Amino acid sequence: MICIFSPVSTIKGTPQTEEAVLLTPTICLPMKYKDFQSNYPLLAIKNGQAGYEITEPVIKHTSDCPTLLFVEPSIDLETKLFVIYFESIHPVYPLLFKQSITNIHSRNRNMLYKPLRYAIATLASTFHHKETTSTFYQLARKELALESPLFCLSMLPIRLDTVQTLILLYKYDNTTPYYLELAHTLLNQLTSHTATTPEQHQEMIRRARWILFASAALSDLNDQACNEMCAENDPPGALPQPLSEELQEDGLCYMNRFAQIVNLSSLYYRTIQSLSTNSLSGLICIKQFKSIRQHWHDTLNAVTQRNLVSQEEITDVLILYNAVLYDIIYLLLLLHNYDKEWHHHQDAVETSYRLQLMVQKWILHPLFSSAIQSKRMAVFALLLCLQVHMLANTYDCVENIRLIIYSIEPVDSRIILQLNELQKHLTVGMIPQSPYEQPLQDYFSLIPTKSASSTPPTPLFLNSPLSQDKEWNHLPSPHWRQPQQEVLLQDQLQHLQIETRHR
Questions:
Q1: What is the pLDDT averaged over residues 448-458?
Q2: How does pLDDT run across 3-33, given as a tens digit for each residue?
Q3: SS3 210
Q4: What are phi and psi of 65, to 5 degrees?
Q5: What is the number of alpha carbons within 13 Å of residue 53 lying toward its C-beta?
Q6: What ranges do the domains of the chain cover?
Q7: Distance between CA atoms of 23 and 21, rounded to whole angstroms?
Q8: Which of 15, 151, 308, 421 has a CA-to-CA distance to 117 between 20 and 30 Å?
Q9: 225 to 184, 219, 461, 491: CA distances (angstroms)
């Protein structure tokens, strides 16, 4: 039994307020990791696969939605929904050519492909006019004949906006990869017909392929359809690039950050595949991955570096997502090598604290839900952190993990139930105060401080959520960089793709 003491109030006659109770001792009941895996299988991650996804029943896609009588939305409502889409979804999900779509819609909305109009309205209405979301969704399906009992793939037009519509429908309803499978088949047919199309059109096809790939790669890879789509297109080709019209309006940074995310999705996919199939020759070595991660971190300006682990400052949502993906992959590698080298234990605990902080900040960002598979990856990241703390017997973060997962909606209710059971089993008394309340300074270099009080330290002497990444002490300070500098590591990451694929 592990007993963690916090300072106890010595004021006589103090009523047992919540603040006073929080200062009472907490008793943590230790649990072996094997017992955790067997007693809480939905929370366990084994060979890179989450237990709750492995045991999840297969849901077949159905098309028995009732047909609705519907009048075309007013031009004012549809225009408002288009504005919402390009403000709240497009910046982190650049599937469409914004300048072209908005220009056509402003002149005559009937010139736009009707299923695509309804798909855009479906997603936008989740932010505004939610009562219309289901109607727009069913209308988009009806326009593509997906509601018909006689539907077959040949009924779908082989055109880019059909593919885009299907990908947007999947973003709204990703319970199965049904829409991705349809889009994937059409993309393969479309590519063979577009060898001589303009570069603008080719770029939008390239983005569709990458978004489709990343959507499958960052999903539940126990699904055979997702695995097959990824295996066939890993990687899908050259990374997305901004068009000249986009450069004038949005600049280079946002597309660079998006390209990094979809590129990391390829590395994540290969890592999960290697772990799940025990084909370890395909795994990138930890030292090489740390070098790439450090290089990415050094390209950020000093303010952004500090803000990654600060709960008070706003950070670009794509930068946060990149940081989360880097630490997810790093934790997967560390957990695989956990028993091989002692320093991996400490690295794993430090990374887990950092990852919890960033996920907590990430899910509060207004554009969080708009990113590719963001909710699934946030839950997966927190469950990875849970594995680390169960292995290290550092139970002080279990309650924090439970509360953060609970705030992600919708989330599998079975996860919440098992987290509640685990928390009750582990602790007797009140939960210690959250480590998130401690001041944060630096992404890598929060060194554990020696406490001057007589209060015993937290488990493993981690008085700070992060300890220094010691291997990088010798690197030069990044403070000389210009505040707006953002460098895309395409060459290095693509080199990594080639190297790991041929290992």
A1: 34
A2: 443 333 333 344 444 333 333 445 556 789 9
A3: helix
A4: -70, 140
A5: 20
A6: 18-59+280-501, 75-174+178-218
A7: 5
A8: 151
A9: 11, 11, 45, 30
Q: Please answer whether residues 2 and 28 qualify as being in contact, where contact means their C-beta atoms are separated by less than 8 angstroms.
A: yes
Instruction: Report the C-alpha gap between 379 and 447 in whole angstroms.
Output: 27
Helix (H) or strand (E) holding 27: strand 26-28
CB-based contact 118:136 (threshold 8 Å): yes
Calculate the dihedral angle through the C-alpha atoms of 476, 478, 480, 484, rounding to the nearest 10 degrees. 160
Contact 463, 451 (CB under 8 A): yes
d(CA 151, CA 65): 14
Average pLDDT over residues 270-292: 91
Three-state SS letters, 385-447: HHHHHHHHCCHHHHHHHHHHHHCCCCCCHHHHHHHHHHHHHHEECCCCCCHHHCCCCCCCCCC
Please tell me the total number of residues recorded for the chain in this structure: 503
Q: How far apart are CA 271 and CA 283, in angstroms?
A: 6
Q: Which of 190-199, 342-351, 485-494 has the lowest mean pLDDT?
A: 485-494
Q: DSSP letter string over 155-192?
A: GS--SHHHHHHHHHHHHH--SSSHHHHHHHHHHHHHHT
How crowded is residue 32: how many other Cβ atoms within 10 Å of its Cβ?
11
Taking alpha carbons only, the member of 211, 145, 201, 204 closest to residue 174 is: 211
Share of the chain above pLDDT 90, in %: 60
46: helix, coil or strand?
Answer: strand
> How far is it between the farthest Cα atoms of the chain?
84
At residue 464, the 3 state secondary structure works out as coil
Contact 201, 160 (CB under 8 A): yes
User: What tokens appear for 163 in the block?
Assistant: 């593919």
Identity at 183, one-letter amino acid code: A
- Cα–Cα distance list, 148 to 63, 64, 66, 152 (Å): 8, 9, 11, 9
Cβ of 64: how many Cβ atoms within 10 Å? 6
**Containing H/E element for 320?**
helix 317-336
| Owner of token pair 């295996």 | 231
